[in-house]
Structures are given as C-alpha cells and as structure tokens.
Amino acid sequence: MTILGVGTDIAQIPRILSLIRRRSPEQLAYRILSEVELGHWGASRSGSDIKRDAQFLAVRWALKEAAYKALYPTYRPTWKDLAYYPLGAIEPGSKPHLSYKYQSNMALHCSVSHDGDYVFSTVIAEQ
Prior knowledge:
Strand content: 25-35%
Domain 4'-phosphopantetheinyl transferase: 5-83
Organism: Lentinula detonsa
GO biological process, one term: fatty acid biosynthetic process
Structural class: alpha+beta
GO molecular function: holo-[acyl-carrier-protein] synthase activity; magnesium ion binding
Shape: globular
Order of helices and strands: EHHHHEEEE
Protein name: 4'-phosphopantetheinyl transferase
C-alpha cells in the first residue's frame, strides 16, 4: 500500500456548541454525518445533553477535516462520504476506523484525542 497523505485537525468544542445553538444539534448532525453515523448519533443521545452532542459532533468534524487533508487533491470527499466507527464499533476490541464510501480498497488510519475544549485528530490515508 502507498501512503496518499497525512492530515491533522483541531476542533474547538465551544465553536461546535456555537453552531449547534444557532440552529440545532440535529441540523448540524444531518449536515456532516453519514447514514451510519446518524444511527450512532441516535443511539448515543441521552436527552438534551448539548455538551455531549457537541463533543460527538466535534470528533467527527475533526476526523473528517483531517481525512480531507490526507486525501486531497487525489480525492475530494464530502462530509457524508466519510464514516467514523469508534473503538469496538465494528467488532469487540476493534480500533477506531474511518471509511470512504467510494474507495473500499483504501485504509484510513485514524486517531482522535479530546481534552477540555479541544479535539485533535490525525488521519493517514493508504491505498
């Protein structure tokens, strides 16, 4: 496999909170989440915890921004073309995984960390 690129991103959770407050958590979720992620979103929501919603969306925002940076200019994915599967989502013990809808032969290795108001992500794209 050949490395196409490496991407990083930092998302500030208060910025995501600001976007949510201007519209709604659902509007932002429908704009940036894939169908699979929308399913995870619905299953993970616990009432009206807006900070938890913001962190969930900030993780996906940062990962997708990092993935775009790793893939560009060879590929130009949209928000919904990329799907994030968190730790253990595919099978018990599986690592976090990012997939690109139109490239099944591609490996998108991802790492995400959050601390306080920030979410940091790194993506390495291999094909």
